[in-house]
Amino acid sequence: MAWTAQRDQLLATVLEMDRLGLVSGTNGNASVRIEAASDPDAFLVTPAALPYPTMTPDQLVPVNGELEPIEGDGVPSSESLLHLALYRARPDVGAVLHTHSVYASALGVAGRPLPPIVDELVVYVGGQVEVAEYGFPGTEDLAQAGVAALGDRRAVLLPHHGMFAVADTATEALRVCALVERVAQIFINATAIGEAKEVPAESFKAERRMYLERTGLL
Ligand SMILES: [Zn+2]
User: Fold this and answer.
1) H or E element: which one contains 5?
2) Given Cys at both, which of 47, 71, 152, 207 links 122, Cβ 3.0 to 4.6 Å?
3) Is the pLDDT confidence value at 135 over 80?
4) What are phi and psi of 65, to 5 degrees?
5) Terminal CA-to-CA distance of the chain, rounded, Å?
6) Residues with CB under 5 A from ligand 1 (ion)
7) pLDDT exceeds cutoff 90 at 40
8) How far is ligand 1, taken at its centre, from the CA of residue 204, in Å?
9) What is the pLDDT of residues 143-191, one digit of tens each?
């Protein structure tokens, strides 16, 4: 079995994603880029419809740019098209994580983007988290809508669905998902008691620069 270190790391990340309650049942999915001589777009992705607590490293599915398994006979996640589109659009991205967490999903249902109301959201995610255009789950429409709304940031909300995060590693992508979920909760609570104010413009500029330097996008 190839890519054992990547399999162990991806599995550890999805177990933590499940433990944190960012997904329920078999929903959500995650992937990391892998080196495969035959294909520059290859990645290792969680399998379709298998529960996380009993998932094993060999059940993770390495796929090529056609989303065909390179090794084994597993079925890749039904959202693999969006993972592929994100890797193609963002060479800086090494991992993709998709969750159905409650507060991020609530914003997507309301069609409300998550504004830059907390300093660390700008530093680690790059600014406002936009809501993508709606696309049916698993389709190319959803993949293209997700890429367009992500821009150069690290997270995007999907209407009537959940959210996606991208980062250099799976651990970091999970951190982004957890941060967006927490800030979404803060935003909804702040809006219930008053106005959710954005970070001052000067701070936003400095934090945005820190983000671009950290991610190598500058
Ligand atoms: Zn989903």
Assistant:
1) helix 4-19
2) 207
3) yes
4) -65, -10
5) 38
6) 162
7) no
8) 31
9) 999 999 999 999 999 999 999 999 999 999 999 999 999 999 999 999 9
C-alpha 71/C-alpha 47 separation (Å) is 13
What pLDDT is recorded for position 82?
95
Query: What average pLDDT does range 103-118 have in this prediction?
Result: 98
Domain containing 133 — which CATH number?
3.40.225.10
pLDDT (mean) for 65-84 = 94
Give pLDDT, residue 174: 98
pTM score of the predicted model: 0.95
- Give the distance (Å) from ligand 1 centre to CA of residue 29: 7
Domain that holds residue 141: 4-215
Phi first, then psi, for residue 144 (nearest 5°) are: -70, -40
CA of residue 116 to ligand 1 center, whole Å: 24
Task: Read off the tokens for 68.
Answer: 């065909």
d(CA 47, CA 72) in angstroms, rounded, equals 11
What is the DSSP track for 52-116?
STT--GGGSEEE-TT--BSSSSPPBPTTHHHHHHHHHH-TT--EEEEE--HHHHHHHHHT--B-S
pLDDT in tens, 80-101: 999 999 999 999 999 999 999 9
Alpha-carbon span 37 to 160, nearest angstrom? 38
What amino acid positions are annotated as catalytic residues? 79
Hey, what's the torsion of the CAs at 84, 80, 179, 122, to 10 degrees?
20
Distance from the alpha carbon of residue 218 to the mean position of ligand 1, in angstroms: 31
Q: Select from 93, 38, 94 the least CA-distant residue to 71.
A: 38
99 alpha carbon – ligand 1 mean position (Å): 6
